[in-house]
Specification:
Blueprint (H helix, E strand, L loop, with lengths): L1 H20 L2 E8 L4 E3 L5 E4 L2 H12 L3 E6 L2 E7 L2 E2 L4 E7 L18 E8 L8 E7 L3 E7 L5 E3 L4 E4 L2 E4 L4 E3 L8 E3 L11
Parallel strand pairs: 1-8
Antiparallel strand pairs: 1-2, 1-3, 4-5, 5-6, 7-8, 9-10, 10-11, 10-14, 12-13, 12-15
Length: about 200
């Protein structure tokens, strides 16, 4: 009688440890139509898949999201005040790539970066996303990332910091000393992450 109880206890403990072990340490950002909804500087969270990452962010950032059942699984039909409709809606990338499966099917690994964003789709697909990287001497590199994760220097990108704007050349700009977070914007692209 005692042996089955011990075995059951060990199995329950193993199941609890395994479920916690499935969560990865990832970074997340949620970009709305006109502003960042959560995580401009991409804070770290723990999540097992891209949908769980959104759920953790919604709790931390106190914003609402809605789900609708779809052929790829649960579809994120709304984040904050922006509902999907027509040729616009909510999509996500992991490490710059738009996966061909639903968000609940994308298993995350430590170090992954999850980006949820509102996009309007045209004949060639959705908009590119921007990634900002700090270089030495207060210089920054802006890359445009397409859905397959291909990165190119973002032509025509503008850096914003401390109420000032700096035009990039071939995706690069040096801006001197500053106090605030730097962001990149470009026409037709999803704004970048924020970097100090």
């Amino acid at each position: 009688m005692r042996r089955p109880l011990v075995l059951l206890s060990l199995l329950l403990l193993a199941a609890m440890l395994a479920s916690g072990a499935l969560a990865a340490n990832v970074k997340i950002r949620v970009e709305g139509r006109t502003q960042t909804i959560f995580g401009a500087a991409q804070p770290g969270i723990q999540a097992g898949n891209a949908l769980q990452a959104l759920d953790v962010a919604s709790t931390a950032g106190e914003f609402h999201y809605g789900l609708t059942a779809g052929s790829f699984g649960d579809y994120v039909s709304q984040i904050g005040k922006y509902a999907a409709g027509g040729s616009a809606g909510w999509v996500f990338k992991v490490n710059g790539v738009s996966p061909p499966v639903g968000a609940d099917k994308v298993v995350l690994a430590d170090g992954d970066v999850v980006l949820w964003y509102y996009a309007t789709f045209g004949p060639t697909g959705g908009p590119p996303t921007l990634e900002l990287q700090r270089l030495p001497a207060n210089c920054y590199l802006v890359q445009s990332v397409n859905d397959s994760g291909k990165r190119t220097r973002a032509a025509g990108a503008t850096l914003t910091v401390d109420g000032k704007r700096f035009q990039t050349r071939e995706g690069r700009a040096c801006i001197g000393r500053h106090a605030g977070l730097v962001r990149a914007v470009a026409s037709g692209a999803v704004r970048s992450n924020a970097v100090r």
